[in-house]
Amino acid sequence: MERLFGLETEYGITIDGAEKIDVVEESMELIRCYQQGDFVPLWDYQLENPRKDERGFEVESLLNDLDEKVHLQQDRKRKIPFKELKSDLIIFNGARFYNDHTHPEFATGECLSLFELVAQDKAGERIVDICAQRRTEGLKTGTVQMYKNNTDFEGHSYGCHENYLMDRSVPFERIVEGLLPFFATRQIYAGAGKVGVEREDKAPLFQLSQRAEFFEVIASIDTMHKRPMVNTRDEPHADPEKYRRLHVIVGDANMSEYITALKVGTTVLVADLIEADALPGYKLKDSISAMKNIARDQTYQWLVEQEGGRLVSAVEIQDAYLEKARSEFAGRDTETDWVLGAWEDMLRKLAHNPMDLVGTCDWVTKKWLVDSFCESENLSWENPDDVFWMQSQDLEYHNVDREAGLYYLLEAQGQMVRLVGDDEVAAAMSEPPTGTRAYFRGRCLEKFGAHVASINWDRIVLKNNRKEHAIDMKRLVDSEWVRRYNQALDDSETLVNFLDVLNEIDANV
């Protein structure tokens, strides 16, 4: 497609058979199972500034600062240095794999292809699963279980974040205007489904989304407290004069390859519409309430109120975005046309009979499983003990163990729609996305790893003969810079030659 994007997924971790676990240390130990040798922390935190807001200011504090202070006190008792505890790894495929304190997190490298992103995302699942198996082998008792979901069913939510590179010149108000109706309604196909309600009334019902009930404000820089529908953290990882990064935190973690591609693909096209100033013009009266009401609507009418009082359906709103995208972008590339076709087919089936989407849509497939389980075991939504067993089925849908997870059981039976093959996923575990700076990051680490002093999204610092050379990667979001730098990396036999070629490229700009 025509912009960079990627996914960050926080995984749930537990140990079956253990009376008590320290999830922070277990997350650390799991990540260290990726590499068999000594752990060497390379990630550079110096350039990170989570308090810079893209609305043009820097906040004095974040709502989760108090949590961080509590975590810091707990970490001091562990007597493990910060970098050791984070266990930050960069993998040869360009991804980042690290301990986000209570969750192992896998952040894919930057991608330009939806199907390549799906392969990279599934590669993350495989890597997490392999590490869980290795950790289990090192335990005296218990089995490590990893879940690609967003809730512990006790009021805590963890995220699957999406990232999209955008034009900095687009007014922030237009971004919010374009995203709110889209995000509130996108869950009708992108939701992962959830048994029960964790906040407010705790009603015993099936929701479309695992995350919808956890959002409280329209826009803010925070991600853990008073979560916003539009996150304003300003870390573009590119030239800040030209680009911003749209950091999306409202989405669920999807097991379905089809929905992962459709979720990201439709959001790319909406970002395109925002930049082109070609929005369909819907304005909801209360976007937060609309998102929560859609998630809980058991009639599947998914009606929301616009400013002015008119009720419209979520399908109608999504269809309006689809028609705008089709009129603006149809025919420009193969993946755009795939998204337009898949989007239309999805909305048609959702309007006619959502249950036709078993095997494609996560929430529909999960509901079918839960309903079948309830019927076979004679369970009732009115019985809290029965709801607990339904939640266990919900959780097992997200188990990344391909021998135990319910999603993978359905996949093995040929009931889930696939977009990539097992060979492509296996390759993505070590091969970075083509034509991107993720390729440069991963291959640089693979080729000159012994010389890497530090690394992050924005730069790599290489050390040769006690002299450090910082390579600025912020420019490597432009195709021509990517081509030149990646070619230099592929052609260079030695580090000295590589650095000389890069210097020559920079001098000829």
3D architecture notes:
The protein has helices at 23-32, 65-78, 82-86, 114-138, 172-190, 257-276, 287-296, 314-329, 334-352, 362-377, 384-397, 406-412, 422-428, 437-448, 479-491, 495-507, and strands at residues 5-10, 12-16, 52-53, 57-58, 89-90, 96-99, 104-107, 143-147, 160-167, 194-195, 206-207, 215-220, 227-231, 243-248, 303-305, 311-313, 452-455, 459-464, 467-472. The protein is α+β, with helices and mostly antiparallel strands. The model has no long low-confidence stretch (mean pLDDT 93). It folds into two domains: 5-426, Creatine Kinase, Chain A, domain 2 (2-Layer Sandwich), CATH 3.30.590; 435-507, no CATH class. The two termini are 27 Å apart. The longest helix is centred in the N-terminal third of the chain and has 25 residues, at 114-138. It has 16 helices and 19 strands. The strands form seven sheets. Strands 5-6-7-1-9-14 form a six-stranded antiparallel beta sheet. 43% of the residues lie in helices and 16% in strands. Strand 5 and strand 6 (96-99) form a beta hairpin.
Quick rundown:
The chain contains 16 helices and 19 strands. It has 509 residues and is an alpha+beta fold.
Ends distance = 27 Å
Strand order of the largest sheet: 5-6-7-1-9-14
Total count of helical runs of at least 4 residues? 16
Class by SSE composition: alpha+beta
Number of domains: 2
Q: Tell me about the largest β-sheet.
A: 6 strands, antiparallel
Report the count of strand segments. Answer: 19
State the helical fraction: 40-55%
